[in-house]
Amino acid sequence: MNQTDSHTNFLNSFSNISEDIIEELLKISEFKTLKAGKQIVKLNEAPSKIYMLVSGIVRCYLSTESGKEFNKNFYMPLSFLGPLTALIQKKPSLFMFETLEDSEMYEVDYYKLMKLCEKHKSLNMLYSKVLESIYVLYEKRLVELISLDAKQRYTELQKQIPNVDALMPQYHIASYLGITAVQLSRIRKKIDKN
Predict the structure, then answer these.
(1) For 160-178, how does the pLDDT look when each residue is reduced to its tens digit (9 = 90+)?
(2) Is pLDDT of 75 > 80?
(3) Which of 6, 21, 124, 137 could in theory staple to 117 by disulfide, Cβ–Cβ 3.0 to 4.6 A?
(4) Is residue 156 within 8 Å of residue 149, measured between CB atoms?
């Protein structure tokens, strides 16, 4: 099985789409290889693309006027990402997306995708299923933020990304958990003692 076949299988895990539609999707997509530290969506940029991450890690974050960063999400292969609210509202993005390691992804023209969704019921179904899966993940994250303490959120992150400590700097993990790097260090020490 080649790489394109595995990506097609991934898409078909949401909803079956034909080879013809895959070909149409590829026409509005560009396969990109990006180095670590590359911003793919910048602050206040009016976006027009969404992404399917094939390899690497991408973070979504918010930056305050003082320069403090808050990580909203980490994306691992295979996943979809992009500033959806900004795309839907045709407004600048409040969130930035940046590669944390060398990454490969398909960059898809969102507005051309919407036109294709109008044309093909199966593609529209795929889009709906992807949105549903993204919503489920966001709801899970919200529940974690509301109901779990920092140690429990860290343990949950370790379940989602088993080698998270080796993959990301401590300050990114701490920001995602809503704590300081010092607090994260204390949590790690307590876990190591147990």
Answers:
(1) 998 999 999 999 999 999 9
(2) yes
(3) 124
(4) no
